[in-house]
Amino acid sequence: MIEQIERFITGWLESLSLSTANSYFTADVVLLAAALAVAYGIFYAVHGVVSFVAKKVVAQTGSAIHAELCHQRFFRRLAYFPALIVLNLFTSLLFVAYPRIHHALGVVVAIAFVWAVSRLLTAFLRAVSAVYNKAKYGKKSAMSGLAQAAHTVITIVAIIFSISLLLGIHIGTLFVALGGASAVLMLVFKDSILGLVGGVQLSMNRMVLPGDWIEMPSADADGTVTEISQITVKVQNWDNTIVTIPTYNLISQPVKNWRGMSESGVRRIKRSIYIDMTSVQFCTDDMLARYRNIQYVADYIDQKQTEIAAYNASEQVDVSTAINGRRQTNLGIFRAYLQRYLEHHPQLSRDFTLMARQQQPTGSGIPIEIYVFAKTTEWVKYEAIQSDIFDHIIAAIPYFDLRIFQYPSWNDYQLVMRNM
What is the C-alpha to C-alpha distance for residues 140 and 417, in angstroms, rounded to an integer? Predict the structure, then answer.
């Protein structure tokens, strides 16, 4: 049919005194314009029908994936294919007498097919990524980074196929040539390649996910991950500043991720208070009598005294001198008190480590470390629990004839000078 139309147009042009060669060329140009117009009309017709059906499906089912496909223009890009098929049928029959033009038209249509497929795939990936990220489990994955990585790969493949079609080089030969130029490509696309590798590793190993609280001192980052893309990761610090970190740096440099704390539902309290070593002493009978009035250690003191008395008797210890044998100290009883106080605290978890321990003495005194886990990960509540515990400990220390170590102040110095 196209050949008959071509002969009709050619005969009409020859009747206008055009040469046969010019009439054939002009007829093909007219047919090409008509083919473009027909392909354009087919595109809009198919796009209108497909979009109408898709919107009906979304309205009736409320499907999130269909709605996102419409938003990403997936169906519009799908409508390119019938138009390109019709255009390919037309162009395969045009300019046959002009091989170069005929070949060029074929290459242009083939490249259009390649990019139509590329755009269709990327629209589908973006839609799937958007739906996945909106789901309740989407926050536990870096789907956006994977989608962007796949988008980059699809685009690179489309570029390679386009170059192959333009230059008339077999795709295998082109890949071999690109392999030889890989060193140059690595330099040119270094950030993209490292970002692609980093994004895939982050996603597959679930090292960092959107919503994680991370600390990365080298990048001055301490806050929540808001976005993971192919090349960068955005972190919103607690002061509301935004830090942008290259994706690969999260693999190559140390990063502290607090996700484990968030998922466990508890947060560690690890803080020490320093006891003045000169206030540590053996307990006298008067001291033990006073300490028995403290609820948490009354039973402990009696049990310990029974154990110590039995040991000293079996070893025939001369108890007239305090240093002989075994004897309780005010610091030991204080640690026992702290242990029981922490065990009875309603806002501390019993399922994790809970202890008050003595650490190696320093020039600042004897550190008594509190190592427990609060039953919350919320910052404000956590700080309130921690402060409440240490308020009580600081106030309780004098009841055990102990002193907190602190460096003398100017007022202390003036007081000493007055008393001299």
Answer: 64
Rounded CA gap, 299 and 106, in Å? 95
Domain region containing 55: 2-135
Domain boundary among 115, 135, 155: 135
Alpha-carbon torsion (114, 115, 118, 120), positive or negative: negative
The pLDDT assigned to 204 comes to 63
Residue 256 placed within a domain: no
Q: With respect to residue 259, please indicate whether it lies within any of the assigned structural domains.
A: no
Tell me how many domains the chain contains.
2
> How buried is 285 (Cβ within 10 angstroms: 0-12 exposed, 13-18 middle, 19+ buried)?
exposed
* 3-12, 164-173, 311-320, 402-411: segment of lowest average pLDDT: 3-12
Q: Is 255 in contact with 215 (CB distance < 8 Å)?
A: yes
pLDDT tens column, 280-300: 999 999 999 999 999 999 999
Angle, CA of 319, 325 and 326, to the nearest 5°: 105
Last residue of a domain, one of 75, 104, 135: 135
Measured between alpha carbons, how far is 150 from 146 in angstroms, rounded to an integer?
6
Is the full-model pTM beyond 0.70?
no
CATH number at residue 306: 3.30.70.100
Tell me, yes or no, whether 78 lies in a domain.
yes
Q: Do 174 and 160 meet the contact criterion of CB atoms below 8 Å apart?
A: yes
* ∠ Cα 155 161 162 (to 5°): 85
